[in-house]
């Protein structure tokens, strides 16, 4: 039975960056390139909110060539390459999922050859042992793989209508090109219905939210290959 409660979903960004930024979060200029030193300092701060600020700044960078080897080393847990990193923090699921997200996007853009198989195995494992915002980011990152294999697990999370994972699951499925994702969203629309007691920002029901998100990816999905 889906949980019924009021929940706010502001935008994709709200699923990636917690609203409350910790006191030790590093101030990162959105237009500037993130350096190895800045990423290392964020990891060593032990402040997850600050780390997420830095990783999201990396995602916005136009030129990532200089930082991708560092991200790759964190993902691989390469302590020899980065001896000055706090590896207890760098091994947290929330951090590794962020690194995986950056690497998968870079792989899709032809910037590097990521360990897609290894990342997929890791993310699928985290579907079972994470929750909340971290699970939301796992789902969003898993969606980048765009495979029918992952659709049932993402659908199962969406079916619970739990915040913030419901929004992450709908976004992940909506931007996937695999036909299985469309079929899952069709089924989800039938499952959630137009339940007035479950509402989103502005009084949008889960059904309305699904339709809004699907519509927002219409132009992006034009680039899906046949």
**Rg to the nearest angstrom?**
18 Å
Q: How would you characterize the largest beta sheet?
A: none
Low-confidence stretches: 1-31
Measure the end-to-end span: 36 Å
Give the mean pLDDT. Answer: 84
Describe this structure in words.
It is a single chain. This protein is mostly helical. The protein starts with 11 loop residues before the first helix and ends in a 10-residue tail after the last helix. The chain has helices spanning 12-16, 36-45, 48-60, 68-76, 87-90, 93-108, 116-126, 132-143, 151-159, 165-175, 179-192, 206-216. It has twelve helices and no strands.
Quick overview of this protein structure:
The protein has helices at residues 12-16, 36-45, 48-60, 68-76, 87-90, 93-108, 116-126, 132-143, 151-159, 165-175, 179-192, 206-216. Helices cover 55% and strands 0% of the residues.
